[in-house]
Amino acid sequence: MALPRTDSIGHDASTLNLQGFRVDALVTRGRPKLRTGMRGRPSTIARDSLHGALLTQLRRMIQEGELSPGEQIVEISLCEHFGVSRTPLREALKVLSSEGLVELRPRRTPIVTPVDPVEIAAIFEVLEGLESVAGRRACENMSDNDLAELESMHADMVAEHDRGHRGAYQAKNRNIHFRIVDWAANPVLKAAYANYMMRVVRARATNTYNSSRWPGSRAEHEEIMAAFRARDPEGVAAALVRHTRETGMSVIATLKRYGSAVGPSH
What we know:
Elements: E1 15-18, E2 21-28, E3 31-36, H1 47-63, H2 75-82, H3 86-98, E4 102-103, E5 111-112, H4 117-141, H5 144-163, H6 166-184, H7 187-206, H8 214-229, H9 233-258
Helix pairs in contact: 1-3, 4-6, 4-7, 4-9, 5-6, 5-8, 6-7, 8-9
């Protein structure tokens, strides 16, 4: 069952823009279809540019739930409407498969990888530890200017919360966590965090549509900020662990409620 879609993401979630070529992506009965938004046949796009553009846009669509877990990716529809061969598309799909976002199946249509609640629960358990270390080290390393930057990012996130812009709130929330990891100044931690976050971002996106989680998430971020202002590394670590644990529990509950193939309705 698909979660209800919200119109307050902040952009037309069904529109791709590849170097000036506007394409509206639609999904009908699990099959994506495209229609051109310019007069005549789309102009040819350089292979390398097309590969990069397709990869970026397909990854975003999957991560944000525009292409739902378990949904078919029909190559011929994409190829026809982009005016290209299957080669650059298949190259992009191979990369997405290596990232765990797409399942390539012999002699069958590729699909968006379903979300496994058991795996997501395990990853959130690991993320608790990573967030703890990152928060502690970031607090120890942070300059006054860094704290001012964090304050600004937090204020922007709260503003999106107050406006009810769920997609924008989630994006700014995520950016704060990645910035804290940056301030930890540990490249191994940063690589591990990015890897695990990529694997849970689709599951976290489902929680964007769970309005009951919003007040708790905001309150937990206020606790995190209070610990940073107090220059309390252990307090920051503890607040981040609580926040990550509560987020994980909420995400898992949502996945179990709606099933593994979770995403906004099309």
